Amino acid sequence: MIKAGIIGATGYAGNEIVRLLLGHPQAEIVWYGSRSYTGQPYADIYRNFTKLVDAACLDDNMEALSAEADVIFTATPQGLCASLVNEEILSRTKVIDLSADFRIKDVQKYEEWYGITHKAPQFLEEAVYGLCEINREQIRNARLVANPGCYPTCSTLSIYPFIKEGIIDPDTVIIDAKSGTSGAGRGAKTDNLFCEVNENIKAYGVASHRHTPEIEDQLGYACGRPVFLSFTPHLVPMNRGILVTAYASLTRPVTDNELRSLLHRYYDNETFVRVLAEDVCPQTRFVESSNYVDVNFKIDPRTNRLIMMGAMDNLVKGAAGQAVQNMNLMFGLPEETGLLAVPSLP
Amino acid sequence: MIKAGIIGATGYAGNEIVRLLLGHPQAEIVWYGSRSYTGQPYADIYRNFTKLVDAACLDDNMEALSAEADVIFTATPQGLCASLVNEEILSRTKVIDLSADFRIKDVQKYEEWYGITHKAPQFLEEAVYGLCEINREQIRNARLVANPGCYPTCSTLSIYPFIKEGIIDPDTVIIDAKSGTSGAGRGAKTDNLFCEVNENIKAYGVASHRHTPEIEDQLGYACGRPVFLSFTPHLVPMNRGILVTAYASLTRPVTDNELRSLLHRYYDNETFVRVLAEDVCPQTRFVESSNYVDVNFKIDPRTNRLIMMGAMDNLVKGAAGQAVQNMNLMFGLPEETGLLAVPSLP
Amino acid sequence: MIKAGIIGATGYAGNEIVRLLLGHPQAEIVWYGSRSYTGQPYADIYRNFTKLVDAACLDDNMEALSAEADVIFTATPQGLCASLVNEEILSRTKVIDLSADFRIKDVQKYEEWYGITHKAPQFLEEAVYGLCEINREQIRNARLVANPGCYPTCSTLSIYPFIKEGIIDPDTVIIDAKSGTSGAGRGAKTDNLFCEVNENIKAYGVASHRHTPEIEDQLGYACGRPVFLSFTPHLVPMNRGILVTAYASLTRPVTDNELRSLLHRYYDNETFVRVLAEDVCPQTRFVESSNYVDVNFKIDPRTNRLIMMGAMDNLVKGAAGQAVQNMNLMFGLPEETGLLAVPSLP
Amino acid sequence: MIKAGIIGATGYAGNEIVRLLLGHPQAEIVWYGSRSYTGQPYADIYRNFTKLVDAACLDDNMEALSAEADVIFTATPQGLCASLVNEEILSRTKVIDLSADFRIKDVQKYEEWYGITHKAPQFLEEAVYGLCEINREQIRNARLVANPGCYPTCSTLSIYPFIKEGIIDPDTVIIDAKSGTSGAGRGAKTDNLFCEVNENIKAYGVASHRHTPEIEDQLGYACGRPVFLSFTPHLVPMNRGILVTAYASLTRPVTDNELRSLLHRYYDNETFVRVLAEDVCPQTRFVESSNYVDVNFKIDPRTNRLIMMGAMDNLVKGAAGQAVQNMNLMFGLPEETGLLAVPSLP
User: Fold this and answer.
1) N or C: more exposed end of chain C, with fewer CB within 10 A?
2) C172 and C219 inside one domain
3) Tell me, what's the ipTM?
4) Subunit partners of chain A (3 or more CB pairs within 8 A)
5) What confidence tens digit (pLDDT) does each residue in A56-96 have?
6) How far apart are alpha carbons C69 and C65 in whole angstroms?
7) Is the minimum CB–CB distance between C46 and chain D shorter than 8 Å?
């Protein structure tokens, strides 16, 4: 059994890691870390775990935790993992960081977009970007995995095959994304109250959202040159789910058949990526509470553009599920272990 | 492997049986029955099953199905199961009926409340009411199980220990219930459109809902005499979940400790019933997409009443989950098999 | 023009008073009081008022405000109005208090249920309970009006005619109420986050909610003796609306016709109370953003009970609308002035 | 008093026209047309009008109606108005058509996108596109107004000043739009059931939505040459509201100040268009149930793009409100008459 510790277990992503690991046949949770609720029974914070979790919350002492755990998940605000991790910890424990600390290789870029000083730049080169479908082999041998952001996961998987194969012009990429409200976290902010979110939709972080450089990096690796793109996230009155609608100009005439074959070639062996049939649009409800990503595209000959679409559950494939998928790879387990729950609908 | 057939696989309850059986280690689905969608790929109707279910929908030929299946789930409108079932089918296949056809032992009462003629009254005596926590032993040997209604399941489990032990006066029971909209089914009715349900709450079936006699029967068996009660269901703008708030007069002075011990005595050995701590109210989100029922109570000394509360997922413990729980019992499997998914939140 | 000041203008009830007074032909707002946002443009807090309100928020100095205003609305937490009001203020300005400070005549009862010391018990006798349909005449001459609570307004109007006429037994009243989330206020609490409220229903304040004695008082006045009742509020995932489902035993045999005539006799002259047709259940969406209350009832001969139902918008008739209705009465205007907006649907 | 008749009064747009006209000081409704509900009391279909509307539904006889009404609103499916309207009707009654029949001047284009034969092409030249802020003067003298589509209204008002002034490149326009579900109408379709829409977001009509040519026409008129753009609508789990996020490349370096002045120059005299402050994103809740459109923009120097945003209520400014605004213009009334209701929040 893999002994797992979670720092930030009382956030929505942490809670989802708990849910997934409780159903994982080869992992057990040894540390429910929560600075805010230290000492309180975990199931008093998340009563869905009544009768299922007896443990109380512990603090975020990563040193102590690394002595007990085989793997540590840090589901914490930006900066915390970088400030706690060190060589000693990494020498005895694998770390999967759900924050952005190790996602962007360029320290300066990280510090500009996040507005904080990076506390552990020495691990940036070693850290592996944990988008399993793309970096599978490096993840297997990693000590430190940077678990991708929710928007970057959905955006990258929706666009990757097309940009990599030169089908679309990298200078024309526009990503219009929509997310459920759990992505905003469990902090008590007026903006996230039910009555402020319900019956409403809004854009936020226009031309300035922190996931922009992360997506640009990944798509840049794919096409072999720097990418600058427009990324606009929107807040939708639902709990879970991310939908990406991306636009780019085609570099040459293409047919639906040609692109469909391409997409299937990239993804048919991927358990968690599902290529939908022609004219079927991804919907977030079809992947809810699962680790699947549904992708599709539409050619618009009138404008010579490709519209690329993807849907996933932001808390699963966009956070906790992908983290567990990374754990499976890092520990030599079948990648799907504990992640095959069927999407729940309605 | 148990071979399972589903008649009515494209309703919400049918879809949920599919979801649960796909995760069940000892069952496989051999028949996706749907009169409306015969011939169409099942995953085209419910795209959450993309890449997971290849089968196409079949008709509702129970005869043919019984030759292939070990168990048949009928998730169909009232009257259909009774019109199809016969001795030959029951002699070779177990039947779990999710409709009301075999829940009420008194034919006349059934026909009055449901307004249809019962087509198979000869099986009423044999049929076992599949509320597992109460009728476990009879279910093990049943050929035909009447899977309980959603409201009756939650209501009965919330009230049963108190009425059975004579703590409350059976003549004073009032049940005010609230349900998510999946309980209204997937039929295309104006009343169930998003814009008619969202931002709204209403009572319906006041003093006339068909689940009333079913609850009265079960509570009557518990206390040993006929019960007449008030039952008012309400439609809530959410997909899943039932909440029951029930009221009754106390027959004698009691303490929280005394009743709490009583409740624990009844339910501590039940995997799927969770007795909450004092002053913690059940919430539907804490049991979402799981087979758990959370129950609690509050003594009101000012009015000498007991307020009894229960929450569950109407599609799981209120329909498909309980059906699978019944199947497990009928086939000698551990009752929890395939049903231990942790509630998903948020 | 009536000059109106609002203390607590940035809460949901305060915001609704602003909305209503902007549409009122004979009132103007001279003071947008908000301790939290003093100095900030009001329309920066509530952007629905962009281009419509230029004023900035002021503090909660009731003395200063009373020098400028003809009427003060206090839409503040319990205790604030009682701590600020005095004879000098009341001698020159009318006060409509939306908190509970002056609703309950018995100081001791108030202090027990609210857990605070009453700071101005000397005005309790003078204060008029502002349920316009019942206390219209006293309101016309009042200096200080206690604007009723949301649950008490809907509960009282639903039950009043029946208890006053002796149709129901006062000892058997049970009120099961459901409210949209705006009733919980705009404070930044985790419990009221979108992801905690959405897809969920729960009871709260079981057998202990502060509106209980207020309802008991009003129904007690109606039937001429003390009433003790069960009141259970529930939180529903919608912004606005309160639905009351109330139960009581009939004191004698009655017919639908008889009770329907009774209800019409009480309410046909009331602009804001609408008696629905037989078998039509009140729904909150039919009164949304309006000052109407829809009421109806159902006789249940099986249990000898009467089920009484009411629906209204908690922010309008349950708070701001009723406050404006009170203002109209206090200033000799037609009661409906500025309040005839048609309910908005969907 | 203007006598108004409504054909299609029981759809959501028709219902909204009723709501607005009931509050209009100079109009009265003389005909509630509804083919589906002929003979039934209108308030039985929309119970928000209980006690407010006594009339029963009439059929869709436009001839008869034109003898009684000064203005006819057709809130019906595509094709109906064109099949009913004729010179005689137009000679005595003004017609405001909320369908697409007279929005697109090019018959062939209409027939291609809508897949039906145009029954009254002889009125296409005469018909005025009723986007009041742009075509105000022609509307004043029109007999037949084509009330704009919801998406085109919000899209055009958000983009118009920039494309007209040559700030953006017309070949690069991408519009990603999101709508509440009332836009899908009140027809009983499975896809629009609560449980299919709630907790979900999806794109639809990708690269093929019928509002595309309408937006292209309007923007083409603005910039003086044909425009081909990408338009993708999305369905959001809320009742009302449309949000447009539009992207285009800048034709030259600009500053926020410069564009902000431009926008204010276009819209400061417009009652119903509100230019938000820098960095304030439009949100649908800030215009709910009102006739306002909130617009803003953001310059993205990294990609040399302009992001243009707009929010409005699809049933008001996107349908019924704009229709009434057109009526006011056509009858010489102040444009705002009956339309100044303050947005309701939350």
Assistant:
1) N
2) yes
3) 0.97
4) B, C, D
5) 999 999 999 999 999 999 999 999 999 999 999 999 999 99
6) 6
7) yes
